[in-house]
Description:
The protein has about 290 residues and is of the alpha/beta class. It has a single domain, classed as Alpha/Beta hydrolase fold, catalytic domain (Rossmann fold). The protein contains 9 helices and 8 strands. An 8-stranded mixed β-sheet has the order 1-2-4-3-5-6-7-8, sandwiched between helices. Strand 5, helix 4 and strand 6 form a beta-alpha-beta unit.
Amino acid sequence: MKCIWLFIVLLSISGCAAGLQEAGIDLSSPDRGSFKVVEPKMEVSGMANYTFNGRKGKVSWFSCSAPKKGDVVVLINPDFSEFNSQVCRGAVAQAFLSKNVSVFALNRPGYGKSTPKERDFSGAITSAAIDATVAQGIKSISWFKKPDGVWATGSAVIAAGLLSKRTKDINWLILGNGIYDMEEFYAKSGDSRYKKLIDDARGDNDPSAFAEERSLAWDTSGLAKKIALYHGKGNIVIDPSQSESMRDTLAAEEYQVSLEIIEKLTHDISPAQHRIILEAILGRWEKSD
């Protein structure tokens, strides 16, 4: 069995997470001024066209090349927010650029200028849109040869996982505050925004079929083999048990998986916190490779 690492970031860190303590990670009072701004070598943006069941749509995308050649990560926009022309200077992109990982960011249908405006909660329409957008990015951007990894949070982790299943070149996933069991999440969540989003996307479709299509924990086959999960201990919107159960499932199936349950972190992760978390994960991977 491959070595399975469990990393838990707390104010007091012990055991196998000692490496993170030595790195000086402290989410209690992140200092924005300590972050170095990494200027991308090249920035390109565009709109990708796609068709799903005869209906045409468009997806807005943005890209930022790292100072040195390295991996390329696909960023999928978070729930209830979208990427814009400033994405390359945002905390998430900056975390990757600081580790020489180039960025290709996209907005799912229903976010920003991406269409249709209806949101299918990372279902088949989103999958078709992402596939077409990544393909156009590879065609349009000289340094984008293939996606090596994917970052996503919330319901976007569903789209990230499904993309990795369809794209065998993807080697790693970094997923935060994720929804991995749709049925359990819907039954336990009291968040009205998510309930409405799910109800609108599901419509009159069979609830079990809707959940099955969007529950990565129900079928983890074909995912990227290296997966880092992180979740706020104080997240009352998406319970940390979603990530804990996903970690256990992935570990049992011999994935190289780590999990950070982060003290004092909630559903809404600040830019500074996100950069600290992502740089810690990427830095750990650098040391282990």
